[in-house]
Write a sequence for this structure.
């Protein structure tokens, strides 16, 4: 892997947040900046989750190694953005009114699902080190299948929070389905077997 | 408790203080400057001309709270006919043609017909009313509307005893209302009020805000303002008024009956499945405020709903 790839991706991942901070300070987030901040960080969380899921198919399609090498960092960025997203909700939206937050989690399905997504991301972030990977062995792979569950919850969270116009969550749902299909054996085998088949043919 | 207050029982503090008036003038001037900019081809708002109203009377119903900035009142809107994003109406509403404009009056009344906007407006003295506006999404504004009581308009059409409700319709014109090309909602947008709600002195037909004609994104040329109900009840760009016996089916109720009821009175005790309604963010403020029963108009309107279960009739 080229040595510049990882630091470049790192900086790229920080750019949306940097822009948000700048826009907030420069009063460029419109009439309701707190809502804009919550929405932007939420949407970026979902984007990072889906971009993370692109890495394995990208590796298979191109045989480049770097997509696998930056996959963990991308996943951690998704976690980082969801932490900012959750903080804007807990602090700027609810001002740490735990009673109200508790009621929201229990009563508002979109918050319930978002919270579940966050809770499931925590063990993924916590077990992302090499040491943890070694310690957990095969269980690590099993645990990290949650990386497919969380974006699904994220899409549902988005779907349930829009009032009537589901176009944007629909696009994310579609992207998610495509990314899952690429992992489905009949689809993925075609790609990865092509090499083998040509090897076998005399 | 008095329902309708006469001028003598209005607290002097409720009358708009001079400083607010001066501030408002500043906004009007800003508006005029904007229209100048618009003529030069650099329209920051979807609004070509700003004609200031003169000779407005002050209303006893105005609230004495700081007004939401003009740029936010005209730049952060829900008007799905021009797109579902909050900035879409300001960006797209310039295509709406507001003149000529006419309003068709139908149903249970003695004087149905199609009236030009001029006919509609002629007999009414315009007044300014500074009202709170609470959106079902948990944000609020304070807006100085210009208009006249809907009751005065309704009386002219002489509704019959069968007129139990008033139904309103927004213009349907997918050519000029690009949001109507997709069926996010059932078009035309329909809203309704019970007759006594429509006749209530707080219910306003608005033709302007901040001292000038309504910008298109705010529902030009004529819209409803019902300050104790969630904002979506205050239907914009009205072309039809129908007096009916049956409770009208409004567009949002039709889209999600368990979320948007016919009454949709602002009520901090009754949650929407998506949003707690206990508090709200006043646009321009950092901390949230507690939401008030009937958006702070309980003294005037609570009696309309005496004996009703507001949890059921949400
Ligand atoms: C994996 C976890 C999560 C993902 C992927 C996610 C994603 C999103 C997305 C895509 C949006 C919509 C952005 C838009 O409208 O453009 C959003 C909005 C929102 N999310 Fe999340 N979110 C997550 C977790 C959470 C959690 C844990 C909470 C709070 C408990 C939360 C609270 C909210 C709120 C309050 C909104 C804004 C709703 C509104 O403005 O009406 N989210 N989120």
């Amino acid at each position: 892997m080229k040595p510049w790839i990882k630091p470049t991706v790192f900086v790229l991942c920080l750019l949306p947040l940097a822009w948000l901070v700048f826009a907030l300070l420069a009063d460029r987030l419109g009439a309701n900046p707190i809502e804009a901040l919550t929405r932007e960080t939420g949407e970026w969380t979902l984007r990072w989750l889906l971009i993370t899921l692109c890495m394995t198919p990208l590796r298979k399609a191109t045989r480049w190694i770097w997509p696998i090498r930056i996959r963990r960092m991308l996943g951690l960025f998704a976690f980082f953005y969801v932490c900012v997203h959750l903080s804007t909700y807990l602090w700027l939206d609810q001002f740490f009114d735990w009673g109200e937050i508790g009621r929201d989690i229990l009563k508002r399905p979109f918050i319930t699902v978002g919270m579940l997504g966050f809770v499931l991301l925590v063990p993924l972030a916590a077990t992302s080190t090499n040491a943890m990977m070694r310690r957990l062995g095969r269980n690590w792979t099993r645990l990290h299948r949650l990386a497919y569950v969380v974006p699904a919850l994220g899409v549902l969270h988005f779907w349930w929070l829009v009032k009537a116009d589901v176009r944007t969550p629909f696009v994310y749902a579609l992207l998610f389905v495509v990314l899952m299909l690429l992992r489905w054996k009949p689809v993925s085998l075609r790609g990865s077997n092509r090499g083998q088949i040509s090897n076998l043919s005399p | 408790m008095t329902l309708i207050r006469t001028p003598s029982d209005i607290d002097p503090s409720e009358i708009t203080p001079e400083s607010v008036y001066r501030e408002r003038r500043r906004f009007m001037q800003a508006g005029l400057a904007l229209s100048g900019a618009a003529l030069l081809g650099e329209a920051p708002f979807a609004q070509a001309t700003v004609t200031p109203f003169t000779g407005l009377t002050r209303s006893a119903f105005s609230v004495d709270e700081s007004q939401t900035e003009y740029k936010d009142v005209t730049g952060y809107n829900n008007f799905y006919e021009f797109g579902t994003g909050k900035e879409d109406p300001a960006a797209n509403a310039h295509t709406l043609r507001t003149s000529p404009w006419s309003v068709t009056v139908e149903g249970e009344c003695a004087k149905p017909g199609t009236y030009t906007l001029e006919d509609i407006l002629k007999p009414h003295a315009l007044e300014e009313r500074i009202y709170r506006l609470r959106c079902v999404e948990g944000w609020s504004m304070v807006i100085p509307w210009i208009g006249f009581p809907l009751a005065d308009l309704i009386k002219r059409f002489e509704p019959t005893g069968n007129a139990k409700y008033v139904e309103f319709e927004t213009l349907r014109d997918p050519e000029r209302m690009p949001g109507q090309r997709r069926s996010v909602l059932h078009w035309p947008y329909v809203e309704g009020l019970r007759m006594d709600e429509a006749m209530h002195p707080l219910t306003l037909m608005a033709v302007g805000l901040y001292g000038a004609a309504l910008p298109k994104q705010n529902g030009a040329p004529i819209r409803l303002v019902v300050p104790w109900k969630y904002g979506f009840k205050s239907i914009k760009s009205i072309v039809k008024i129908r007096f009916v016996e049956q409770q009208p089916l409004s567009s949002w109720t039709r889209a999600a009956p368990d979320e948007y009821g016919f009454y949709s009175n602002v009520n901090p005790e009754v949650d929407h499945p998506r949003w707690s309604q206990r508090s709200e963010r006043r646009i321009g403020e950092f901390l949230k405020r507690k939401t008030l029963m009937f958006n702070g108009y309980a003294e005037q309107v609570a009696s309309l709903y005496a004996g009703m279960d507001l949890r059921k009739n949400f």
Q: What stands out?
A: Residues 193-202 of chain A have pLDDT under 50 and may be disordered. Residues 94 and 162 of chain A are 20 Å apart (CA to CA).
